[in-house]
Design brief:
The chain folds into two domains: about 1-105, Tetrapyrrole methylase, N-terminal domain (Cobalt-precorrin-4 Transmethylase, domain 1); about 110-215, 2-Layer Sandwich (Methyltransferase, Cobalt-precorrin-4 Transmethylase, Domain 2), CATH 3.30.950.10. The protein contains eight helices and ten strands. Strands 3-2-4-1-5 form a five-stranded parallel β-sheet, with helices on both faces. The chain has a five-stranded mixed β-sheet with strand order 6-7-10-8-9. Helix 6 links the parallel strand 6 (about 125-130) and strand 7. By secondary structure, it is α/β, with parallel strands linked by helices.
């Protein structure tokens, strides 16, 4: 069985009892970063052999995991934080396992986009998660333009190094809509800033740090 296990996005206490039980029971843990997952396992006194599984070795490591599953082993897939396959490695492995006829299940838990959406105070009866936008300005603006008239609240992830140009391009394409930035969710410096896009730009620190989710109101 392949288990997709959601892990804390910051606060280590945000892990379910079922997730801990599953991690203790599987034969292997496939991790995006074995060092980070190692700290999580050590915190809960869990000892399991780890398999490195990330975007740069996804195909090769995926074949190894499929072989282990075929041999009757159980494998837990975790990412650095949150839910596997949400802007993280996992999709190709799930697809391969399903196509091979192997059993796949999930142990749900933390997911940054859901927490950010709820705390944004923007409408979330219907929303579109767009993940990380392209890094290059021209491609990013084109990416935004596809959703310019969307009636759904829009959710993005972005690196702190590209947060300012992200907001500048968003202002240009979407106009000065209401928006929110969720920063370092569940961590010591957690913050939610709610304002128009232009106000968010004005209040942005010179050198933002940490993880960010940006939520933008739908078109009227």
């Amino acid at each position: 069985m392949l288990y997709l296990i959601a892990t804390p996005i910051g606060n280590l206490a945000d892990i379910t009892l079922r997730a801990l039980d599953t991690l203790r029971s599987v034969d292997y843990v496939a991790a995006e970063d074995t060092r980070k997952t190692g700290r999580l396992l050590k915190h809960y006194e869990i000892r399991k052999p780890q398999i490195s599984f990330h975007e740069h070795n996804e195909r090769r490591a995926g074949r190894k995991i499929i072989s282990l599953l075929k041999a009757g082993n159980s494998v837990a897939l975790v990412t650095n934080a949150g839910t596997p396959a949400i802007s993280d490695p996992g999709f190709t492995l799930v697809r391969s396992a399903v196509q091979t006829g192997l059993d796949v299940t999930m142990v749900p838990g933390p997911c940054a986009l859901i927490m950010a959406a709820v705390l944004s105070a923007l409408p979330i009866h219907s929303f579109t998660f767009r993940g990380f936008p392209p890094r290059k300005p021209t491609q990013r603006r084109k990416f935004f333009s596809a959703d310019k008239d969307s009636p759904h609240t829009l959710i993005y992830y972005e690196s702190p190094f590209r947060l300012r140009p992200f907001l500048q391009d968003a202002l240009q394409i979407f106009g000065d809509r209401q928006a929110a930035i969720a920063h370092e969710l569940t961590k010591i410096h957690e913050s939610i800033t709610r304002a128009t896009i232009s106000r968010l730009l004005e209040s942005l620190p010179q050198n933002p740090k940490g993880e960010h989710a940006i939520i933008i109101a739908p078109a009227k």
